[in-house]
């Protein structure tokens, strides 16, 4: 079983830090790459995760707790997806990438959270785009 990680801890630090990626080049590039990586995961499931991300408070004193809660629920749901042999590698890569991003968020501030939410918004958009493009073929 291949256990690769698309978004490492170091990469997530560059993506989520507005000073290291001011124009969002890495952030949006890797949102697209991850969307391509998880293309076999149902778009409703991806949107469900995004819905949970949007609920994370923009309050500096609350968001770190809420993002850890999101990760726990996300990992539980991804584990259920891992039971489908055809997408096990995609699910594990998705899980490992999100773990790295949440670890980075835990060390960052509210600006990191804003970019995490932007990442998810782009991920959903690219995933839907790829889904509709692939259906036309």
In short:
This is CRISPR system Cms protein Csm2. This protein is mostly helical and 137 residues long.
Description of the molecule:
- By secondary structure, the protein is mostly helical.
- The chain has one domain (9-136).
- The chain is built from six helices and no strands.
- It is globular.
- The model has no long low-confidence stretch (mean pLDDT 91).
Largest sheet: none
Indicate the mean pLDDT.
91
End-to-end Cα distance, whole Å, is 30 Å
The proportion of strand residues reads: under 5%
Q: How many runs of DSSP E, i.e. beta strands?
A: 0
Q: How many domain modules?
A: 1
Secondary structure layout plus pairing:
Elements: H1 9-16, H2 25-37, H3 43-55, H4 63-81, H5 88-107, H6 110-136
Helix pairs in contact: 1-2, 1-5, 2-6, 3-6, 4-5
Keywords: Antiviral defense, RNA-binding
Organism: Thermosipho affectus
Family: Belongs to the CRISPR-associated Csm2 family.
Structure characteristics:
73% helix, mainly alpha, CRISPR-assoc_prot_Csm2_III-A, 0% strand, 137 residues, 6 helices, RNA-binding, globular
